Amino acid sequence: MHNKTIAQISRDLAAGEYSSVEITQHLLDRIAQQDSTYNAFITVTAEQALAQAKAADENRAAGNASVWTGVPMAHKDVFCTNGVLTTCGSKMLSNFVAPYDATVVSNFNNAGAVSLGKLNMDEFAMGSSNENSFFGPVKNPWNHDCVPGGSSGGSAAAVAARLVPGATATDTGGSIRQPASFCGVTGIKPTYGRVSRWGMIAYASSLDQGGAIARSSEDAAMMLNVMASFDPKDSTCVDQAVPDYTANLNDSVEGLTIGLPKEYFRDDLSAEMQQQIRDAVAEYEKMGAKVKEISLPNTHLAIPSYYVIAPAECSANLSRMDGVRFGHRCEDPKDINDLYKRSRGEGFGEEVKRRIMVGAYTLSAGFYDAYYKQAQQVRRLVKNDFVAAFKDVDVIMGPTAPSPAFKAGEKTSDPVAMYLEDIFTIALNLAGLPGMSIPCGQINGLPVGLQLIGNYFNESRLLNLGHQFQQATDWHLKTPAGLV
Ligand code: GLN
Asked: What total number of domains does the chain contain?
């Protein structure tokens, strides 16, 4: 049962093959038996999940079922869940029980889905390897010595290990796409403003976007149908009708033009990686798509500008964690300054502190113009590259990450090496564009992801391209060796 996709489970429940309580219990048992290996879950909400499943079965019996009724999934622990521990992977929030549901969580609850719990992540979504979690690192199901990617490593690992068929995730600079690539699963980061950020704990507000990780494009489309909504509680949420993302999965890709940015295929990308990506693109050519070389000349400026903007926004967002209102509070503070300093000093991990310090510096009087303002101007150049490119092409393709999953510990002492992981993903967040990663090959038994970049609000096209690739190939069906 755990090998079934969201679409299959939805059909099986409708056909009465098994009940929601049965599949929910099966997955909860599997998590109990296997998650000590992966550490993908921070909290398992077994009791609540079974209650939701029972309610779903009753609704179905009463004739009130929709496609999501009784289908299990899980949430990245960045989304607030009413009455349930919401940690964001941090000691700072290790005692925080959210008093309300994020809009994304309410959307799934209203659709009748069953949430199995909360998934591990890099602390406050800062990281590319899931080694920055207060709750310990997550293992990559394909090779337990390797990282699952980050920051949504728990979401990607749980889906790859068949602990859950789909999971919510967030992407500020690549945190949906890079772990999806490392774990051989499908991940979509929608256009900025497509999915509400209300109740999604903020890292860098102008870049953060919620999205989905699942095993197929069809499942990702089903998830996005629930996640995407206009939400007046998020002022950057865009008031635009949500299409049915499953409606165009079978559209032909004939005649579409795929842009391949020459900056994504430079010599420092291994010949093997280049070959895998070109082979994947060739599949689309077989289907009648055309390929055109393009240039995104400001690609090299994306990481430097991100690592000014994201820390600046994080230093502002994380100032609310002060030991006063919620979260970790130090023992016996002498006075208010001591309370702030020790609560924050004890509550935040090393990477989070590093970014708060960088952000506070670049926003300070005297440095603001030199750093933050300039980074915002550079951001516009990065965006303009894409705007120009999309005049000539329908979609842009390239690698999701520069390599397959790397070994745990390999980059922990070198923050810049870790930051370079996002070289192909970060520009989309700066521009606000939608992007997707689908498994398209393997190197030494580890999955490789193809990144698909779409124009604004063109998620349907990305999902369609992902689905067509998955109809023609079986990379998304491969399972990690030894998985039982
Ligand atoms: N790796 C990037 C960072 O550490 C992106 C993380 C993310 O997308 N949340 O900021």
From this structure: 1
